[in-house]
Amino acid sequence: MSKKNNIGFIINFSHERWLGGSNYFxxxxxxxxxxxxxxxxxxxxxxKEKLNPNFKKYNxxxxxILNPNKKINILINYLRMFILIIFNRDFILEQIxxxxxxxxxxxxxxxxxNSKIKSIYWITxxxxxxxxxxxxxxxxxxxxxxxYIASKNASVILxxxxxxxQTFLQKYPxxxxxxxxxxxxxxxxxxxxxxxxxxxxxxYFLISNQFWIxxxxxxxxxxxxxxxxxxxxxxxxSTGTKFEWRSSSYYENLLKEIKQNKLNNFIIxxxxxxxxxxxxxxxxxxxxxxxxxxxxxxxxxxxxxLKIKVMASNLNVHKEQLGAKGIYFGCDxxxxxxxxxxxxxLKRKKLKQIGYNKLYSLxxxxxxxxxxxxxxILIKINK
Length: 383
Hints:
By secondary structure, the chain is of the alpha/beta class. Helix content is about 45%, strand content about 15%.
């Protein structure tokens, strides 16, 4: 029988700011709760009401040291990092976590190889390798420093895909033994989700991403402009928040281009409920993901669970997720994208949908595997 662990997570971002990450943790917590004996403690420095509402059933501890609005914490963070580099141990945070009997700190910055608390460092993606132009020199250095410190101090380095792990190991081949992959999965609700908007638009395609620069919405706009010349105007619905920490103008510029070209068929719905989002996906012709970089896309995982076809940029990680079932186009090839969109739109034939109860049962089976895969990583840490 595996050891029961009290697992700590530091969640210091709002649900609104990083919707994908928030939902990722919500599903991971649900998997731990349903399929393991481990307990969950969430540490945060922001107001609890800003966190994912699904976190309420877990133990949430407010730590003043994590509050991003306190200027003193900037100095404390530098001090903690300095101590970690010198002594391979974050004595300050470790002492706090010991009060709450934490065995493993997961998906967070490591406490140090000399710490009594094991730690899992999660690398979501490696955008800074592929899209350097989106990061300032300071941001790239910070990401490099984080990885360097984690490589020396984390018990495990976790990735969401083999693709990102392989990219990482090309630069850090000596870390192969402590690098693991956990493909995440979203848990479907038991009751079939219903969308009111799906009835309004009927024949449509769906994008379900935040409006971040690397999500490559520009390609969608260019593709629709090409089809507009042919008087072909398929509806594309978009869900997701507009927050983008790298650019305050990206979303506004996108709206401006849509308006100038009178793309009334590109409908931005913004943030919608999970039931609405899944209902929209269930009734979509295709999910579209034109992203320039991904670690493991959650919307694609949702589409796979619902047996919805996907058009995606030809990233290796997309091919890992979708295999031969995906329809691919280049990140900068809006003509190829418009050709694919035109072809699928003119078919105007929705594939026969599998009964939702069967989809739910399959998802339930795979969700348990996801939770147990995480549990197996914890077992390896404790050996």
